[in-house]
Amino acid sequence: MKERLYEILNEEKIHEIVPFLKQLTAEEKQTLVPTIKKMDREINKIVMTKNSYHTAGSVNQHSIIDIASFVCMDQKNFGKNYWSLFRNIEQTEQILEWGCPDWFSDFINDSIDAEFTAFNYQHILGWTEKGYIRPKPELLGHHLSNYPADLDQYPETLSTHFWYLCEYPSKSLPFQKEWSPLVQKLVTEQKIDRKRFLRECLLASNRNFNKNVTGWFMDAFTSLKPTEAELVELQDELLGGLASAQSKAVNTILIHLKKMVGNPAFKNDEFAHYLPNLLSVEVKTVVMGSLSLTEKIFQHRRLDPETLGIALTSAFVCKDDSIQSKAAKIILKYIPPSKAIKESLSHYSDNILTNVRSLLETYIEEKPQELEAMVSEKLPLITEENKVKVLESFEDLMFFLPLAIEDPYSHHCDTALSGFAYFANDVNEESVKLIEPVFLKACKTIAKWEVPYLNVLLCNLIINYGLNLLEKYPVQLKNLEKIYQKTSQEEAAREAYSNYHKKLGPIGKVGAGSPVMKAFKELAIYTYEKIKAGDSVPLLFAITHAPCWISPVTLVERLEVYQNKNIEPHHLDMQLALQRCALDNTSEALQLAEKKLKGEYKELLLFFFGKNTEPKGKFEHPAWWMTAGITRSPEKVFKEFSSFEYHTIPTEFFSGIYKWKTIDSKKNSYYPAELNIEIPKYHVEKRKDPLLLEYFIAEPRELSETLGMMWCFPNTLGNVLAKVIKSCLFYSGIAEVYERNLVLNTVQALYQVKKPLDEMGYLFLGTVLLDGDKTIRGTAAEIWLEHVSYKMIDNAQLGKVIGIHEKLEWAPVKRLTDLIQHQMLNVSKNHNIALEELISNILLQMEDPITNLKKLLEVYHEVLALNQSQANKKVIEKLNDWKENSSLKKICNHLLKK
Question: In what residue span(s) does the DUF7825 domain sit (predicted)?
Fold first, then answer.
């Protein structure tokens, strides 16, 4: 039986597969399932050619396996293959006639979750008629959505199935262009009940459809031009639709409600119930539409204004001037200042803008609380709170390693490597068993296709360490060999791909696709050699405080160990330790260095910690001194280092300062402006004393290791930020997931570093404050808030960056104004003063009025009112020019009067 199936497959006798299967019993079919699965794996193996790849099986062989799988397997084994079997529908029909599986009906009913199917609504009706399936309403509605044709062929299509379409439509319904005119025609011909369809359109607003499908039903409702009488009859459904999560639905319903406000049957009390939620949404068109409808209700009806008035006060949850002004005008015109209204408004007192507050002074009894100026202390880089855990035993190490595998770009990795150096050989027959789950996790992680490079190195180190223990403890660790063999086989299959970098084997042979990776790999090899040698001398680069800092006192103590043991540090280990050292408070470390160290160590640290303003002593290790100079004073050139061999490295890489400009984007009409930053090209040169910096600046530039780079250069982030800006922030609306995630990870890391910004830091922060991603903008605002609190930000410089971008409309100004209103305004007196300086400097860069400049000026007006100050003198000159613009005249005059 198996031999016959192999014969049919190997000789591609597709015409013989059905006769062969017909003669099998149920038990024989079940017996064949493992064989069919094995054949399927064989024909689906990838065969690489010089220019492409294909599966090992031919088209006929794939068809043979598809048919055999369908006939012999149960639903679980067959899976959700909605395409292959049905490529030849006639053949499928023949198979169904003599052997329809009992699971076929459930299989077809589940097809609504499939990305694509090769059968359609007509096939489903045919199979239903023959008794093969019992279709669910969801199935019929879904497939009818994709089949706007032959609707008169079956009487149940329009009488029943069309209503399933309304309740369970396909996501592709809006893209079937034939449906809209077809529905209008069917309604006109009275083949579809008009009132029922109108009701179904409104019910779609709360059926959790995606926005395209919901929008289709809203457009269908509007296209039928419902009369006022029909709207009154559908009033409950209309009002219920106001709770929709889709703004298109709410806006459509608000438009139709307006048409019936004058009708005595209009339920204004019910509308008042929905109004607070409508006024609290972030979509401005919904809020303005709701206010417009509220005003029309007051115009057309005599009613007790208090219920609707109290609901109306919810508008002040939003800090938009146009929204608050419109709400205030309605209140002034139609709502008396009763006790209830005053109390309701008091809940929003702190939120009401200054110019609107003056309009409502008879309604607002108490004054807003005076914001206090914050008393800021210096923000230390290292504290007890961010001190990392110190491992104390081999058991600690084994429990900690999985954390490091999960998050290799965090301090967990450094803690794990430090623990390895101390406790790798502190093992016995009992404790050694703890390595097995860690080894398994490392193998499972490294076996994935896409693995962060630091994870590859860490997992490789764990695996090689586990294999060494296996030689010493073969009985206790017998399972490790099986785990490793399986992982090795998986990697062997991948090595056929030219772009695959080896991950298993000796750590020295692990693939490294870029200079950055080579630097990490060299440090990993050094660490592994220490572990193998049982060398417990501490790693210099291991951080002591999250996210990436080394205490200067600890650095001195570690160097003392090297000095006393007469061991020379690894050149990259030493440089990385210097780069990660927290330099905000070095007084204690200086005293310790003068007392404990001698020779080059002492002279180096006296210079590095700032006691010696210029480098002194013997420069036996130029890379150490150069790294100390760049880390301590990146913009300064020390003449004492002029004899060093680093002249070929462009000076931008030492200073971290690059030329940049925002220019008109001639080549892309969708993005009106482009951010250009000039980064020189550099290739690693062979030299006696290479800088760790060289690996990170060299071509090809490695973006995937950006987070690792930030944790290697926390004192001098300019190079990393410039690279991210050039690769991910040249346009304001880049939506690719990779770039967006990279920018988000970078801005989150910048928030954790908590150092004053350098020139590239201001460019990066000013740019991401305008980013299209809300989370990125929010994190950038948090950086600004913290830096203002600790008086470590230059708002003039930041404002200049944003202004240079925005004078060419690099990004919509609304992104910034919304961010200011929701996150940055009225946090404290200090923040309001900082905000005034920030906006003034943005406006100083502006020339001609840009889109939404009015909104920025309104925010500026509010900030000035809060600070009880006047516009910047140079800004006033611009306001005098801009007031000639009709849309800006009013706000400019307001600002000029201040």
Answer: 655-897
Structure confidence at residue 368 (pLDDT): 62
Of 215-229, 383-397, 728-742, the poorest mean pLDDT is in 728-742
Residue 275 has pLDDT above 80, yes or no: yes
| Largest separation between any pair of C-alpha atoms in the chain | 99
Q: How far apart are CA 545 and CA 486, in angstroms?
A: 38
Higher pLDDT, 721 or 152: 721
Backbone angles phi, psi at 373, to 5 degrees: -75, 135
Q: Is the pTM for the entire model greater than 0.90? A: no
Q: Which amino acid is at 707?
A: L
The pLDDT, as a whole number, for residue 14 is: 86
Number of neighbours of residue 223 by Cβ within 10 angstroms: 14
Q: Which DSSP category does 100 fall into?
A: -
Give the number of other Cβ atoms within 10 Å of residue 745's Cβ: 16
Closest CA to 220 of 166, 177, 165, 183: 183
| Block residue for tokens 């490529």 | 87
8 Å CB contact between 224 and 194? yes
Side-chain-facing half-sphere of 835: CA atoms under 13 Å? 29
For 769, the 3-state DSSP assignment is coil
CA distance 756 to 741: 24
The number of C-alpha atoms within 13 Å of 240 and in the hemisphere containing its C-beta is: 13
Residue 148 phi/psi, 5° resolution?
-80, 60
95 secondary structure, DSSP code: H
Q: Which H/E stretch holds residue 398?
A: helix 394-406
How many beta carbons lie within 10 A of that of residue 133, not counting itself? Answer: 22
3-state helix, strand, coil in the chain (%, to 5): 60, 0, 35
How many helices (H) and strands (E) the chain has is answered by 47, 4
Our measurement of the distance from residue 183's CA atom to the centroid of its chain's CA atoms, rounded to an integer in Å, reads 40
pLDDT tier at 878 (50, 70, 90 boundaries)? very high
The β-bridge relationship of strands 53-55 and 673-677 is unpaired
Question: How many CB atoms are located within 10 Å of the residue 692 CB?
Answer: 22
Measure Cα distances from 685 to 517, 692, 696 in Å.
16, 12, 13
Q: Does residue 197 have a pLDDT over 90?
A: yes
Residue 199 and residue 529: Cα distance in Å, rounded? Answer: 74
Task: Answer whether residue 361 shows pLDDT above 90.
Answer: no
Query: If you average pLDDT over residues 29-36, what whole number do you get?
Result: 91
- Is the omega angle on the peptide bond into residue 547 within 30 degrees of 0, that is, cis? yes
Asked if residue 255 lies in contact with residue 213, where contact means CB atoms within 8 angstroms, the answer is no
pLDDT at 502: 84
Q: What is the dihedral of CA 253, 256, 261, 263, to 10 degrees?
A: -120
The H or E element containing residue 660 is strand 660-664
More confident residue, 272 or 897: 272
- pLDDT for residue 2 is more than 90: no
- Do 568 and 562 contact (CB within 8 A), yes or no? yes
Q: Decide: 605 and 573 in contact? Cβ < 8 Å.
A: no
Round to whole Å and give the CA distance between 289 and 275. 11
pLDDT of residue 496: 64
Smallest CA-to-CA distance from 256 within 201, 305, 210, 206 is with 201
Verify cis geometry, omega within 30 degrees of 0, for the bond prior to 700: yes
Specify which residues 54 forms β-bridges with: 47
Tell me what the pLDDT averaged over the chain comes to.
92
Measure the CA–CA gap between 463 and 452, rounded to whole angstroms: 16
Could you tell me the pLDDT band of residue 815, with boundaries at 50, 70 and 90?
Answer: very high
Q: Which residue has the tokens 């499972």?
A: 444
Category of 107 on φ-ψ map: left (φ > 0), alpha (ψ -120 to 50) or beta: alpha
Give me the pLDDT at residue 439, please: 96
The tokens 């990795």 sit on which residue?
A: 413
525 vs 510: CA distance, rounded Å: 10
Average the pLDDT over 637-651 and give the result.
Answer: 94
Give per-residue pLDDT as tens, 286-318. Answer: 999 999 999 999 998 777 788 899 999 999 998
